[in-house]
Amino acid sequence: TKNSTSVANVEALTKKLEELEMNDEQRARLEQFLTQKELVGEMATEDFEKMGELGSGNGGVVWKVMHKPTDLVMARKLIHLEIKPAVRNQIIRELKVLHECNSPYIVGFYGAFYNDGEISICMEYMDGGSLDLILKNARRIPERILGRISVAVLRGLSYLREKHSIMHR
């Protein structure tokens, strides 16, 4: 039944969470995300309301959207499928990895779906902006903050390498 499957999923996720090195705040944030992900379920184009464009590139556009059934704000990347096979294969590989990622150092993945020639990839919305934009706008970032950013990035890269055998380039 769906309930027993859900209980099994929660138990498996709890075990994975215990394996990760994180503080209580990070654990709470990840648990909250996983609960939200469970509530989102299956997605369709009509479930979303566009709130604004976040960026574009690599064959697609990223939108800030509201998932109407849950009132959850997400980032939704729309990728046109008229792309080269190598890019399409890269997208498929990345979706498989994203589905399996549960780390406070990796942006959360809600799911993906296909509609009318486009793949929609729904991710956790990060309201702080991109790191390159933050660095560009800041005149000077204190070393202690740069250190914390560096540690977080390295932990994310380490997670990808150790848990998914991925070396980010």
From TrEMBL:
<protein>
    <recommendedName>
        <fullName>mitogen-activated protein kinase kinase</fullName>
        <ecNumber>2.7.12.2</ecNumber>
    </recommendedName>
</protein>
<dbReference type="GO" id="GO:0004708">
    <property type="term" value="F:MAP kinase kinase activity"/>
</dbReference>
<keyword id="KW-0808">Transferase</keyword>
<keyword id="KW-0829">Tyrosine-protein kinase</keyword>
<dbReference type="InterPro" id="IPR050915">
    <property type="entry name" value="MAP_kinase_kinase"/>
</dbReference>
<keyword id="KW-0547">Nucleotide-binding</keyword>
<dbReference type="InterPro" id="IPR011009">
    <property type="entry name" value="Kinase-like_dom_sf"/>
</dbReference>
<feature type="binding site">
    <location>
        <position position="77"/>
    </location>
    <ligand>
        <name>ATP</name>
    </ligand>
</feature>
<dbReference type="GO" id="GO:0004713">
    <property type="term" value="F:protein tyrosine kinase activity"/>
</dbReference>
<feature type="domain" description="Protein kinase">
    <location>
        <begin position="48"/>
        <end position="169"/>
    </location>
</feature>
<keyword id="KW-0723">Serine/threonine-protein kinase</keyword>
<keyword id="KW-0067">ATP-binding</keyword>
<dbReference type="Pfam" id="PF00069">
    <property type="entry name" value="Pkinase"/>
</dbReference>
<dbReference type="InterPro" id="IPR017441">
    <property type="entry name" value="Protein_kinase_ATP_BS"/>
</dbReference>
<dbReference type="GO" id="GO:0005524">
    <property type="term" value="F:ATP binding"/>
</dbReference>
<keyword id="KW-0418">Kinase</keyword>
<dbReference type="InterPro" id="IPR000719">
    <property type="entry name" value="Prot_kinase_dom"/>
</dbReference>
<dbReference type="GO" id="GO:0004674">
    <property type="term" value="F:protein serine/threonine kinase activity"/>
</dbReference>
<comment type="similarity">
    <text>Belongs to the protein kinase superfamily. STE Ser/Thr protein kinase family. MAP kinase kinase subfamily.</text>
</comment>
